[in-house]
Design a protein that fits this description.
Blueprint lengths: L2 H8 L3 H9 L18 H15 L4 H12 L5 H34 L1 H26 L1
Helix pairs in contact: 4-5, 5-6
Keywords: DNA-binding
Protein name: MerR family transcriptional regulator protein
GO molecular function: DNA binding; DNA-binding transcription factor activity
Length: 138
């Protein structure tokens, strides 16, 4: 199939597929006699894998490293596992940060009238006072 069909099937843009190929995230794609990419199931599976790992937050560099390990002729299972564990730890830390932010927003919404509006009024008063001070010193 051509790149447009692969894009439609995977939900990955043609530009992203070309980028994945250029970055070595997927193997070089065979070409037709006229030079068009000829994408087979092997490449489709790689595109899907890259997409899943990017959705899991893996950086291009880590993903490239993982794929090099995966494609290595020797057994690199331990190194692959270590990279995945590192990525999982990174994502869990991000989840913890998100949980804190969500809790903060939940609190702000639960106390909007008694906290947020009062804070907004105080900040507006400070802004007006600062503007008046600045105008008086000019």
């Amino acid at each position: 199939m051509n790149i447009k069909e692969a894009s439609q099937q995977t939900g990955v843009s043609s530009a992203a597929i070309r980028y994945y190929e250029n970055e070595g995230l997927i193997p070089p794609i065979d070409r037709t006699p006229v030079g068009n990419r000829d994408i087979d199931d092997r490449i489709l599976r790689r595109i899907k894998f890259v997409t899943q790992m990017r959705a899991a937050g893996m950086s291009i560099e880590s993903l490239r490293q993982y794929i090099q390990l995966f494609d290595a002729p020797e057994d690199t299972g331990a190194e692959q596992r270590a990279l995945l564990q590192e990525q999982l730890a990174t994502m869990k830390a991000k989840r913890a940060d998100l949980d804190v932010a969500i809790d903060h927003l939940d609190y702000k919404l639960a106390h909007f009238e008694d906290h947020m509006q009062a804070t907004a009024t105080e900040l507006h008063a400070l802004d007006r006072a600062h503007a008046a001070e600045k105008q008086g010193s000019d």
